[in-house]
Amino acid sequence: MVLGKTTLLKCITGINKVEKDSIKIDGKIGYLPQKTDIQKNFPASIEEVVLSGFDSNSFRLWNTKEEKQRAYDVMKDLKIYDIRKKCFRDLSGGQQQRVLIARAICSSKDILVLDEPGNGLDQNIAKQIYKLLKTLNEKNGMTIIMVSHDIEKGIEISNRVIEIKNGKKVFDDISSKYNLEGDKK
């Protein structure tokens, strides 16, 4: 069985069941799918969507002060705090992507699984998001598993890059000190 990138991420998150072997995860997972089909009349505000990340495993009517502060900090980092009361349905595709990334970050302090997080974002916003992801990994110890077609960006921000083609691993670098041809920089 050949797995695609998205299918692999869905196996890691537990959305898809693994037929052979197993995947063991130690910690809670925040997940950003590649494409999210949200109803056009989705009435929630940015703030409500981001805060819902904390409620992913339980139903609660309120968030703690700590959760709200974390959500506000993430929204500030992603440049959506000032528009947090705006309705999600009224946002551009890039703004919606940033909201969903903020929600995924709020879903877990342990592991973040992202499928093409730079999709729909202009270059400057994508750069900010990759910088935030690197900070979450280096300073907060968060494990980040990301699928991206932007191999150069992946090498720049990652401490391990794995390239898969046609279901086979063709590149695996723990130190990210190699260029795309596998030669040392």
Number of domains: 1
Average pLDDT value? Answer: 82
| SSE run | HEHHHEHEHEE
CATH class descriptor name = Alpha Beta
Radius of gyration: 17 Å
Uncertain runs: 176-185
Structural class from helices and strands?
A: alpha/beta
Helical stretch count? 6
Question: What is the 3D form?
Answer: globular
Briefly note the CATH topology name.
Rossmann fold
Strand order of the largest sheet: 1-2-3
Count every beta strand, where a strand is a DSSP E run of 2 or more residues. 5
CATH superfamily: P-loop containing nucleotide triphosphate hydrolases
Q: Report the end-to-end length measured between terminal Cα atoms.
A: 35 Å
**Main beta sheet strand tally, sense and closure:** 3 strands, parallel
For this entry, give a set of tags.
185 residues, globular, three-stranded parallel β-sheet, 37% helix, 5 strands, alpha/beta, single chain
Give a concise summary:
This protein is α/β, with parallel strands linked by helices and 185 residues long. Helices cover 37% and strands 14% of the residues.
Can you characterise this structure?
Helix 5 (123-140) links the parallel strand 2 (111-115) and strand 3 (143-147). Helix content is 37%, strand content 14%. It is built from 6 helices and 5 strands, in the order H-E-H-H-H-E-H-E-H-E-E. The chain has a 3-stranded parallel beta sheet, sandwiched between helices. The protein has a two-stranded antiparallel sheet with strand order 4-5. It has a single domain (5-149), classed as 3-Layer(aba) Sandwich (Rossmann fold). Helix 3 (65-77) runs antiparallel to helix 4 (93-107). With 185 residues, it is of the alpha/beta class. It starts with a helix and ends in a 12-residue tail after the last strand.
